[in-house]
Design goal:
This protein is 44% helix and 20% strand. The protein is of the alpha/beta class and 282 residues long. Bound molecules: S-adenosylmethionine. Residues 8, 12, 19, 23, 53-56, 59-60, 75-77, 80, 104-106, 122-125, 128 line the site of S-adenosylmethionine.
């Protein structure tokens, strides 16, 4: 489970516009987006200086820039940063962004200590760090002011198991029961125990692992949320969800409202596509 930044870079450098479309092309993506956006709106203040690390194509950049005083955008993938810049130009928001950087979150030495009121690291950058997870958290904390907040989102193992159920069963037939058991026991796709040629080396978390990780730092966990909860349905249900979104706006609004409400219940924390923690630097 060694962190391989080149593989992560390559993956996102070859992503085209998939990252931009991911959160709008279907009902699942939209629900995931709405939960994150609600958290961003609640935690980022108009006066805040914000860093968005692992910003990807800019799906949240376009929102964050409107709710803070100063936004710096960064990602390990130069393609994602170029794509993000282009989107912000199209949306007339480019000039509002202080800077764009291609950097790895485990080494953000271009930023001084305690420089940001709020750091946003959502959509799974931490899930790629493998043996460097603690280095990643340490860097996020270093660049955050004391009393500032960090919003961190990772992939969930239960969410991934439910959502990619068919694929996981198929891969069990290719790689064997021990590989399937390894991935489900540890949440790790590491290339050794789980030899998928896709090289999607990542850590899908259980919330108790996040509790343990953050307990090793001087932080207070101020909120925990799942995200992408009502998307844990089969293809048939997904099609129905899409139909409601297109045809019944009042029901769709109620679904979004309930997704946001239910993702805050402790019993759902591990059950969505992502797990989000909001931590305060003490
Ligand atoms: C699934 S995308 C999420 C993008 C965006 N935050 C969102 O939620 O739409 C993950 C992003 O994290 C970036 N990333 C992965 N590992 C990273 C690292 N070590 N440092 C900085 N960015 C990283 C990837 O390049 C990719 O753009």
């Amino acid at each position: 489970m060694v962190y391989k930044p080149d593989i992560v870079k390559k993956r996102y450098d070859n992503y085209g516009d998939r990252e931009w479309k991911r959160l709008e092309q279907d009902a699942n993506g939209v629900l995931l987006y709405e939960v994150h956006k609600e958290l961003l709106l609640r935690y980022i203040k108009k006066s805040d200086c914000v860093l968005e690390i692992g910003a990807g194509s800019g799906r949240y950049t376009k929102d964050i820039v409107d709710i803070c005083s100063e936004l710096t955008v960064a990602d390990i993938s130069s393609h994602q940063i170029e794509f993000n810049k282009q989107k912000m130009k199209e949306l007339g928001k480019f000039d509002k962004i202080k800077a764009f950087h291609v950097i790895d979150m485990i080494d953000m030495n271009i930023f001084e200590d305690d420089g940001f009121d709020n750091v946003v690291c959502i959509g799974g950058p931490l899930s790629y760090l493998m043996d460097k997870e603690k280095d990643g958290v340490r860097e996020l904390l270093r660049v955050t002011k004391t009393g500032g907040t960090i919003i961190i989102g990772v992939m969930s193992i239960i969410g991934a198991f439910s959502y990619y159920f068919n694929e996981i069963v198929h891969e069990k037939n290719l790689y064997g029961i021990d590989a399937a058991k390894w991935a489900l026991d540890t949440g790790l796709q590491d290339g050794i125990h789980y030899p998928s040629p896709k090289q999607h080396y990542c850590h899908m978390f259980r919330s108790r692992e996040l509790d343990k990780l953050f307990s090793e730092f001087n932080v207070e966990v101020i909120e925990k949320s799942s995200a992408g909860l009502l998307t844990m349905v089969d293809d048939f249900e997904n099609a129905r969800l899409a139909k409601v979104r297109q045809e019944d706006s009042e029901m769709w609004d109620l679904i979004v409202e309930k997704e946001i409400e239910f993702t805050k219940y402790p019993g759902t924390l591990d059950c969505g596509m992502n797990i989000i923690y909001v931590i305060k630097k003490l």
